[in-house]
Amino acid sequence: MLQRLLFDTTPADFIKNAPLFRGLQDSEKNSLIKMGRPCFCPRKKILFRQGDPVTHFYLINKGTVRLFHETPDGHEITTDIRSAHDTLGITGIYGVTGIHHSHAEAIDDVVALEFPRDWFQNCAHSAAISQNMLATLTHRITMQKLEAEQRSIMTAAQILACYLQRLCASQKLNPRNFELPYSKSLIATRLGMKLETFSRALAKLREQGIIVKGKNVSIHDLPNVEKNTCAQCSYKESCPAYRSLRETLPALKKCA
Amino acid sequence: MLQRLLFDTTPADFIKNAPLFRGLQDSEKNSLIKMGRPCFCPRKKILFRQGDPVTHFYLINKGTVRLFHETPDGHEITTDIRSAHDTLGITGIYGVTGIHHSHAEAIDDVVALEFPRDWFQNCAHSAAISQNMLATLTHRITMQKLEAEQRSIMTAAQILACYLQRLCASQKLNPRNFELPYSKSLIATRLGMKLETFSRALAKLREQGIIVKGKNVSIHDLPNVEKNTCAQCSYKESCPAYRSLRETLPALKKCA
DNA sequence: CGATCGTTTGATCCGCATCAAGATAGGTGG
DNA sequence: CCACCTATCTTGATGCGGATCAAACGATCG
Lengths: 256, 256
Fold this sequence. Notes:
The structure is a homodimer of 256-residue chains. Chain A is an alpha+beta fold.
């Protein structure tokens, strides 16, 4: 049916394998499968708007969502980019205001599952879900702090290099050669810089062995990368990119 | 006994009234009272260091704690300031690395209750605690995003004005006349700016009716305040200071 | 083939950091 | 009570990084 066409896997399988629902009883998963409604949002459309009451929370199956704010003078600020297996609306559900804090816009065609807020709050309260949510939020807090710190002590080029590193780490990409998952303008706003600044940062990284041509990225001079990126930030072992770097650098150096 | 001298209230009463433990069964509270050990950390001493294994989580009863990182070149970055009723180490407990992400330093003499990490994770898992934790972390995420956004679109003076507003809102201070709870240098680092910049921002605010002399603050020109602070940020109803402003401005204007 | 979108490059401006001196206040000992 | 000291803060001069405005470039598409 339609669902088969939209989803990467069936909704039931998707729920069974979702990291957010890891550790749940089968009965709980079945109840989630019953309540999870497929939800489709085409490219460029708005999934929900800042200020809207929180009616559902979403689990993304396919596609990419941009969260952003509008400033009073009409500019937009990208606060996050979410994709498969990420959630949408958690902070809305657990927040006190009952409204969404950001606009959510589909970058691609987006497929998600939606769960009614009330049902979820009242009935779906297993210890396992709470645990998973706590782990997710904790991770988000750590990463936010890390990025906030980077913005205050690093140059645009360094921030970008760190971002590319984290991208490799989180999406298991090969640093020697991978494709940017989003447009450069989207990444620029995601990193809180202007497209022009982003572009100039790319030029600087090129001098240091990180070559970006179109959407294609290849990182050559690894010692330099090590010197200029997360290895320099003060989060050390708290930073996923740093941990990943520690693990992968020796292997990568051998390839060099 | 000693505990009476250190704590504002007895540890038992403190636990019974702690927001974090709201909604718990009496039996759960009693178990917390049994396991919560008083913990004293004198001014300027370090409670735990970044990289230390997370052994406990803490609930502050008295005093102020600064969370910070060290950059590779020796500078320090204040990531948060916590005081009575705040927690310490939650992200450490729920994080995957099992280590603290920041240094925690006592600004004042600090009194706290500590709970062993393992006991807390294994035995203290009531739905109510999880709920409270989720609400706390959600709030923290929202505020972090808000501040990150402010740093990218506001000037130092505006950021400071917003901070003062939030201070009034969260600590129920009278905007017409209150005392800064921390030193100016601490607030400056908390806001991610240099002390010099902070000082110059004060001068600018003075022209706009926000007068700071020593630790004393008085906000006079409310329309100007409204124009220059959280009312301008894009979080609107998600921002506590904005909500508070909407509620309190009419009353304050009458006093003017 | 022009039109549009996404990106690059150039010139200029502004805000904050930095470096360097003063100023003020709180605390101590003579 | 005053002189001294240190901690905390203020003020001034300068430089750098990123935002802004403006224009050109390249790719894709009807």
